[in-house]
Amino acid sequence: MPRPSVRLIPSRPVVQGCCLLACLGGLALALPAQAEKPPATEPAPLLVHDGKLIQLPELSPYRARVKVAEVRAEAAPHRVTVPGTIEADPTRMVNVLPALTGRLVELRVHLGERVKVGQVLARLQSSDLLQAGSDAAKAQDAYNLAVKARDRARDVNAAGGNAQKDLEAAESAVVQARAELERARTRLKVLGATGDEGNLAQVSLPVLAPLAGVITALNVGMGAVINDPTAALMTITNLDQVYVTAQVPERLLPQVRVGQLITAVTTAYPDRPLHGTVDSISSMLDPDTRRTRVRARFSNPGSWLHTNMFVSVEFAVAQPAQPVVPASALVLVNDRVLVFVERKPWTFEAREVQIGLEQGDRVRIRAGLQAGERVVVSGGVLLND
Q1: 11 pLDDT exceeds 50?
Q2: Residue finishing a domain among 176, 203, 231
Q3: Are residues 330 and 245 in the same domain?
Q4: How far is CA 131 from each of CA 127, 135, 208, 224, rounded to the nearest angstrom?
Q5: What's the domain range around 349?
């Protein structure tokens, strides 16, 4: 009779031990696989400091952001701006004085009016003018009498009734009377008197414009009594040409010369710059402002430039050749200004410099840098980290 089969059922501890052995075996197989992976590589450094030198490694991302350029020396003139004003040309500004004292009986102009040469501005009646007119009338009468006397002397002499000397005396009297008449008439002509000399009360003295221009000052009114012949009745200013007068500081005087180019811009018309040259430099310095007057003459068609207008005057001041770098090449560290000079490819050295004048985005270097050296012009702040 066949044996009955016996089935062994392992106990729970045995089953758990087998599972543990299986897990340990799998872990042992996994550990060698992990040990075979290569170690992770460290990222490339951004900068490498070697004493005073700063290097950019080959794989540094800064290389794409740092740009280097050669330093060049430039002697371009520096632009200096000073304040100034528009002034009338003194040779084209006239004070109108009366030729005689008297009373103003007519005033034909007003302040700001444009006048022409020879235009009648006013009229005066003067006792001196009346005296001049009286002298002219007397001289005319004396001349007429002398002519008649000479004619009679000629007739008498022709008839043998007088001596030759009497005729000569009569002719001499005519010559003297004619001279006196011409003197009296010339005086009236110089004074510009007009009117009927036979009616002295109607004789008046016109005041004429000596030049074309604008009445910029009017000091009298209708009916005024003029008793000071040295006091101006009015002022006429011709503005066809004007001066731009710049107030130049004392320290800049050695850099300004006659014939130097300037540009003037008015506050009223900034879109109409004036280009000219220095015409004169005053030899006197203002003791209060420590400035001197530098003038340039400009044409003024249409009189669009008015006296006392404010202007900004720009001078082109010559400069010696100096290294010039972009402003982006400068790195400010505390109170020092640095540039990074290339010592060899991708190796730089920080160097302190002294800066000079700025012209737009370019800066002159007074000390610390030479033309021909190569400096970082973009990304210098990265090297300063």
Answers
A1: no
A2: 231
A3: no
A4: 6, 6, 21, 21
A5: 53-76+321-383
